[in-house]
Specification:
By secondary structure, this protein is of the alpha+beta class. It contains 9 helices and 19 strands. The structure holds flavin-adenine dinucleotide.
Length: about 425
């Protein structure tokens, strides 16, 4: 918990409203497993849960605690789909592959809800849709195109006029938008902790405080050395470390840009103010290139996320732009106390698609969420488990590709900085 007079140099997890973690311990001793999964976030734990449910032996190793990565720090917005719209997927991958990707994209959020239901996970959540408002007239045309695209796919989506949107949001700052009934929100840290509990109950082993240092091919399997010196032998390894993939496999981290995204949360809003801000409770992410995303959580706090410095934060001033954005949208929040400040890394690929790699048989690398990973990585874990069980590559939403270091990776902070300035300029003009 980070009260108002502190800020997280090592970023905070959203602890105060999360359910208790499942009891996990560091790995103690040499071990063998069929499938070793690296990373205790949504992707790793969903892979483990689905494998264990089908009777397969598996083990998860997490360097820190469950949800230490994006899965414990995110904005809790359940946004259906991938970053690319259906027509873009068809144009890029053709009717058949693109069609499979659309099917996968359609089901990302419903996979989360079905895991919550099937395992009776104790996760505060809503299933009341998601809203994308347009911040400008130009953005409104893009939203209308996206809406038509999803309507063509039969998705339960509808357009929102400026006044309908103002009623739903409690602010008239946006030009119109669209409503996607498939969306919702959840307490992110509760969800990842409950996934761990469900995976353990299904028979997976889950060890925290155990960082993987080396993955080596030995005979027909893999030798995985951990920070404690213990070694795990596994027939197969799945890496789900996403934006936190430092040094695990050559060029993996260097295949994505991993900027920080920043969030603030207020104290619980008093009732008279709460009913004027997002009165119907939907989560919202707007159309800015440097998007703002916001919602009220189940304890009545208002939270907003958005861009921030690429580096780790130096002080509370690194969140000032978000506080300012909140009071521009909702002037009634100008005197509300801000109680939490935190941030975390997201992994952005060059083509804005999730990436799967299989550099050698029996080793799968999963990376790339573009800041939209609750549904995506839950569904990805399910797909990876299915592939491991059946060997059928069509179970995967994207084909395996080679790991490719980004050009000019060493200069990424500079070009992300330049891109942010450019996006800020575009957002102010359109
Ligand atoms: C601030 C923020 C806001 C976001 N908001 C949203 C949102 O509202 N909606 C949404 O859908 N998505 C959002 N996202 C994205 C989402 O959180 C991620 O896409 C998702 O959590 C990624 O899950 P994952 O399991 O792939 O990776 P992570 O959750 O990042 O898990 C990777 C894990 O691997 C572990 N690890 C790394 N190296 C090793 C090692 N060597 N050995 C063992 N373990 C290792 C890390 O400690 C980490 O716990 C947000 C992300 C951030 C940071």
């Amino acid at each position: 918990m980070f009260p108002d007079n502190r800020f997280p140099l090592a970023p905070a997890l959203w602890h105060d409203t999360a359910v208790e973690p499942a009891a996990t311990t560091p790995l103690g001793g040499r071990a063998e497993t069929d499938t070793l999964i690296i990373g205790g976030g949504y992707a790793g734990l969903s892979t483990a849960l689905h494998l264990a449910e089908s009777g397969a032996q598996c083990m998860v190793l997490e360097a820190k605690e469950i949800g230490f990565g994006g899965s414990g720090r995110n904005g809790g917005q359940l946004v259906p789909g991938l970053k690319k719209d259906p027509s873009e997927l068809i144009a890029a991958y053709g009717a058949e592959r693109g069609g499979q990707m659309i099917e996968f994209a359609q089901a990302t959020v419903s996979t989360v809800f079905s895991v919550i239901d099937r395992h009776k996970l104790n996760v505060p959540h809503t299933r009341n849709g998601w809203i994308q408002p347009a911040h400008s007239q130009t953005a409104l045309s893009l939203v209308q195109k996206r809406l038509a695209d999803w309507q063509k796919q039969g998705a339960p989506v509808r357009g929102l006029s400026r006044s309908e949107l103002a009623d739903l949001l409690g602010t008239d700052q946006y030009y119109g938008g669209w409503f996607d009934e498939r969306g919702g929100s959840l307490q992110p840290l509760s969800y990842v902790r409950e996934l761990a509990r469900a995976a353990l109950q299904a028979g997976a082993l889950v060890h925290t405080d155990t960082a993987v240092q080396f993955i080596e091919k030995k005979g027909s399997g893999w030798h995985v050395t951990t920070s404690s010196g213990y070694v795990v032998q596994a027939r197969r390894v799945v890496v789900c470390a996403n934006a936190y993939s430092d040094g695990i496999w050559k060029n993996l981290k260097e295949s994505v840009v991993d900027p920080n995204t920043y969030q603030v949360a207020t104290a619980p809003l008093p009732d008279d103010i709460a009913k004027t801000v997002l009165p119907h409770g939907q989560p919202v992410s707007d159309t800015r290139n440097l998007l703002l995303y916001f919602r009220k959580d189940h304890t009545g706090r208002f939270m907003m996320g958005g861009r921030g410095p690429f580096r780790e934060p130096r002080g509370k001033q690194d969140w000032d732009h978000l506080k300012k954005a909140i009071t521009l949208l909702y002037p009634q929040l100008k005197d509300i106390a801000f109680e939490y400040y935190w941030c975390g890394r997201v992994s952005v690929t060059q083509d804005y698609m999730p990436h799967l790699h299989q550099p050698e048989p029996g080793l799968i690398l999963n990376i790339g969420c573009q800041g939209r990973g609750i549904g995506l990585q839950t569904a990805m874990g399910k797909a990876i488990a299915s592939y491991l069980q059946t060997g059928n590559e069509a179970a995967l939403p994207v084909p395996f590709t080679p790991v490719q270091r980004l050009p000019f990776y060493g200069l990424r902070k500079l070009y992300v900085g330049a891109l942010i300035s450019w996006y800020r300029y575009l957002d102010s003009r359109t």
